[in-house]
Design goal:
The complex is a heterodimer. Chain A has two domains: about 120 residues, Rossmann fold (3-Layer(aba) Sandwich), CATH 3.40.50.720; about 80 residues, Alpha-Beta Plaits, CATH 3.30.70. Chain A is about 30% helix and about 25% strand. Chain A is built from seven helices and eleven strands. In chain B, the strands form two sheets. Chain B has a six-stranded parallel beta sheet with strand order 3-2-1-4-5-6, with helices on both faces. In chain B, strands 7-8 form a two-stranded antiparallel ribbon. The relative contact order of chain B is 0.11. The chains are: A alpha/beta, B alpha/beta.
Chain lengths: ~220, ~180
Amino acid sequence: MFIIIVGGGKVGQYLAATLSQKKHSIVLVDSNEAKAQRIAEELDNVLVVTGDGCDPLTLENAQVEKADVLVAVTGDDEDNLIISQLAKECFKVNRTFARVNNPRNQNTFDVLGIDAISATTIISTMIEEETSVGDLTTLLSLKRGNLSIFELKLTSDSPVTGKKVMDLKLPADCILATIIREDRSIFPRGGTVLYAGDSIIVLSRPENQKEIKKLFIV
Amino acid sequence: MHIIIVGCGRVGANLGITLSAAGHNVVVVDKNPASFKRLGPTFNGITITGIGFDPEVLKRAGIERADALAAVTSGDNSNIMTSQVAKKVFKVPRVITRIYDPERANIFKRFGLQIICTSLISSEIFNNFLLQENKSSTVNVGKDSLKLDYIVNAALEDPSTPPRQSSESLRVRKK
């Protein structure tokens, strides 16, 4: 894939280095000439363009019209927004990602339809998920589609232990995907009975987390 | 009207002073508190220190009940972002954006922003005064427009400054 990275800070450089190793062709854009020069010397397989990424001409120099993906990771949220909007609306780049430095701007990016990633938010959500719900772990959160995969460990005290799957009162947007019992996975049917020690893999909306915990554990 | 001005540079400060003198409810936002000095003693509005596109700062400025917002910081990108936050997140009925870069102004017009590209307007004005030709031109800002009429008023009658000869004849004379 052809990927343009705008912003040659730590994040931009690391992305350029790892993605170029995975055989993607990478163009990195940074407005600081000395920095751009240094990056060009350090990273062999990365083409570096010097210029302001918010300037459509710079993006054209980076051959934005051919890009499959554009990533805006400068230290300024306003720049990341404008770069993503230019790429998306003017140059029809299929996928764009913006870095959100201040988590308070996340909602702005969401409202304006720009995919945005806030490291601070991700880390704090991870910590929250690890600490707040003891026996329920979030295995994966898919932001696109607003979907989470949870794992729950059943004990003999669980209200569902000994029950059949068809008798569970699952929330509307929720699927009991798999039961892991002694290293074997069971794909549940209505008549499958749940036992203490089972690990339950549930596919659901992130906001159902509390309800699911209540149903299976407390 | 409750009006928020983001950016307290020369334009923002002047706008703040005029609007507050006209009896409007004015809140001026700037990231640098020192810039509020420009507002002078007559300004009777509110000043808030903070980044203009930060939703929390805008809420403190009363954006949820604001009738209008002007984005006039020195940064084109922050003006564009502030305006989009005001328009799309907080649904402010009237949002006016100042952009220096004509190219960016042209592009973000398509995003539904009401943009005043002051570089284009000043160059138009300079052009008229330099060439002294009767001319009227129109600048579109959203659905509204600004009409500039340049009228030559006997400037050439001043005998102390006759017009120069054309550059070609000057060159010939030098030889």
